[in-house]
Design a protein that fits this description.
Length: about 270
């Protein structure tokens, strides 16, 4: 499997108050660091989430993640949502929130008890389909973002930033934070090797059931850091049906950091 260069997609919703991009030049190639800084979002329109989880079983042949138990979370519309009136053919607020909760649990084992899911809905309006986004901040330095098809609930992207062990006083807007990120990227670049990495990626994807079909190829893309100095390695994964996914894993390749559906290749 050969390495190829590619420009990453930086997905940040309008509700984020600031964006910070840092580039880092490695020894042999240009390595891109994306840092998205999410500002605090106001809460509006609280909606209870009391309904039967099994109701969602008909959506995109969904299977409830093993061990999942519906959490006691709250659902609100984010202030930047384009609409608060989903089309009758699309998922309701509650359905989209529950799918997001299941996806977060599937990829991280995090349960959302006593958390608040902030939801944003974009109508079809000239697009191929409508879209639902869900965002939840477990702590100020630990958050999840889920993007899905507004009509079917099919997952488009699942991403998390920071982590549970980052101290709350971490100031991402200081020179010391920039220096720390650069040092971690430098160290991560020197330590990383492709030897055995593809096997580790394939094993994790297969074991966790992230993809529903056999893997055709895996290609390394770049090393990056989020706003809290958490390092990840990004790979493009092509399945047997030529569907292309972009998957970022933790520095030790044992945890998912970012998952997105890119396209279906025509070959």
């Amino acid at each position: 499997m050969s390495r190829k260069s590619s420009d990453p997609r930086n997905f940040v919703k309008n509700g984020f108050k600031s964006i910070k991009i840092i580039t880092f030049i490695g020894v042999s190639s240009l390595l891109l660091t994306q840092v998205a800084v999410a500002g605090e979002l106001k809460t509006v329109d609280k909606v209870p989430t009391a309904y039967n989880v099994s109701k969602l079983s008909y959506l995109v042949d969904r299977q409830i993640p093993a061990g999942y138990v519906k959490a006691n979370y709250k659902t609100i519309y984010a202030p930047y949502t384009q609409s608060k009136t989903p089309s009758p053919k699309d998922l309701s607020l509650e359905e989209a929130a529950e799918i997001a909760a299941q996806e977060i649990f599937k990829f991280s084992d995090v349960k959302l008890d006593n958390q608040t899911l902030q939801m944003s809905y974009s109508p079809q309006a000239g697009q191929s389909s409508s879209t639902w986004w869900a965002q939840v901040s477990i702590t100020p330095s630990y958050s999840f973002l889920v993007e899905m098809d507004g009509g079917t609930g099919e997952l488009i992207r699942s991403k998390y930033t920071g982590g549970p062990n980052i101290y709350k006083e971490f100031d991402m807007d200081t020179p010391s934070a920039d220096k720390l990120i650069s040092e971690r990227l430098d160290a991560g670049t020197k330590q990383f090797t492709l030897d055995g990495s593809y096997a580790k990626v394939e094993n994790l994807i297969t074991k966790k059931g992230y993809l529903a079909e056999p893997i055709k190829s895996i290609t390394y893309q770049w090393i990056s850091s989020d706003a809290f100095g958490v390092i990840s390695h990004t790979f493009d994964v092509t399945t047997a049906s030529n569907k292309l996914y972009r998957i970022a894993l933790s520095q030790d390749l044992t945890q998912l950091r970012d998952y997105s559906v890119l396209k279906t290749e025509n070959k």
